[in-house]
Amino acid sequence: MVDPHVREDERIQGGHGIGLSKTTLGQQRFRQAMLERYGEACAFTGPQPPGALEAAHLYLYSTNPEHDLRGGLLLRSDLHALFDRYLITIDPDTWSIQIGPDLKRYPDLAELDGQPVRLPQEIRPRHKYVEDHALTARATWKQELPDTNCHSPWWLKLWSAEISVGRRHQPISR
């Protein structure tokens, strides 16, 4: 039923459709394992309600479809979205949060820059995953193509190739 008091230019057509979607198998079990490992805490902001926390992969799940328990973090859903888009990362040398230049104009996010990751050293994710994520994020921030002749991970070479043909990779699921 259309509300007669709402002007036509204030409406957006809505409804529902039927479609196909790809499901990440085991994601709920991975999230549960991350909750058991890290407790009800975001790796960047500390204690949070469990409903606000998501299990984030530090690697591209689409190319490595297994849930490595040492390859994940719990992040608040908004920070997870930024992490998946390489707008925020972890410095692998200092284990501190790094935000991309585009986020510095947002005070609440800028406040995170340089803050230590809130994970005890003994249960931190694999260093290689953190290193690879940071490398990709920094390359994205600079909008430069990494040297694909170096010993970069194969997915970084793929990402570089996508950039060179004008397609920017924005992963939907990790």
Morphology call: globular
Helicity range = 25-40%
Mean pLDDT, to the nearest integer, reads: 84
Largest sheet: 2 strands, antiparallel
Which helices and strands, and how do they pair?
Blueprint: H1 27-38, E1 41-42, E2 46-47, E3 53-57, E4 72-76, H2 77-84, E5 88-91, E6 96-99, H3 107-110, H4 127-142, H5 154-164
Antiparallel strand pairs: 1-2, 3-4, 5-6
Structural commentary:
The chain is an alpha+beta fold and 174 residues long. The termini are far apart. The chain is 29% helix and 13% strand. It has one domain (23-164).
Key words describing this protein structure:
29% helix, 6 strands, two-stranded antiparallel ribbon, alpha+beta, single chain, disordered C terminus, two-stranded antiparallel sheet, 174 residues
